[in-house]
Amino acid sequence: MISRPIYTSLAVVALVAAALFAETAPTAEARVGGQIPPFELPAAVGGPSSEPFRVAEHLGEDPIVILFWATWCGPCRLELPFYESLYQKYKDQGLEVVAISMDSQDTVMQAGPAARRLGVSFDVVTDVDTRVTSQINPRRSAPFSIWVNRDGRIVWENEGFSVAEQGRIAKGIKALVEGEKSTAKDAPKK
User: Fold this and answer.
1) Is 14 exposed, middle or buried (0-12, 13-18, 19+ CB in 10 A)?
2) C-alpha to C-alpha distance for 130 and 108, rounded to whole angstroms
3) pLDDT per residue over 90-125, tens digit each?
4) How far is CA 131 from CA 96, 126, 134, in A?
5) Are 60 and 151 in contact (CB under 8 A)?
6) Does the pTM exceed 0.70?
7) How many domains is the chain partitioned into structurally?
8) Residue-range definition of the domain harbouring residue 180
9) Which CATH number fits the domain that encloses residue 86?
10) CA distance 108 to 125
């Protein structure tokens, strides 16, 4: 039979473990109206960028588009070149675009070269451990896009991509870059 002091010790260990887990668990998922959590992710090997992407370097200065994608995702192969065209149009006005690959260890080495083949010149990074994905794309949807205004607030998020939405997305990105409050209403509706 186990003595009372051992039960007490086990209870203390369980409480300490629970407290430690609570401190290291990811923060609540980001949503429209909330702040984008700070993150840094490494560049995809063989991709268009070679430096890590640090979202904090852009907060308060640049509008940011965050695209979650994967090499196995068909709609992503349509979305990335479309956002590349918007990036080329608005990069001189401060637009930042970052594509976060959700590829696993098995396919992550294909992400950088795949982005280059699609003509992407903006930052392409990887999130193999899903640390960032679990915070701001908890359903792990691909494609999934988030727009962040110059104040660091999420103004829009969208799961999926359709060529039919390109006009509305272009209008919404224009509003995002120009700092208009109407970005959410200009973005595509699902």
Assistant:
1) exposed
2) 12
3) 999 999 999 999 999 999 999 999 999 999 999 999
4) 21, 10, 6
5) yes
6) yes
7) 1
8) 28-186
9) 3.40.30.10
10) 10
